[in-house]
Amino acid sequence: MDLEHKFCRFDTEVTVVEGFRIEGYASLFGACDQGGDVVARGAYAASLKRLSAENRAVKMLWQHDPAQPIGIWDEVREDERGLYVKGRLLDTVERGREAAALIEAGAIDGLSIGYRTVRARKNEKGLRVLSELELWEVSLVTFPMLPSARVASKGEDPSDPSWRELAQVLEDARRNLAGV
Question: InterPro entries under this entry (predicted)?
Answer without folding.
Answer: Peptidase_S78_dom, Prohead_protease
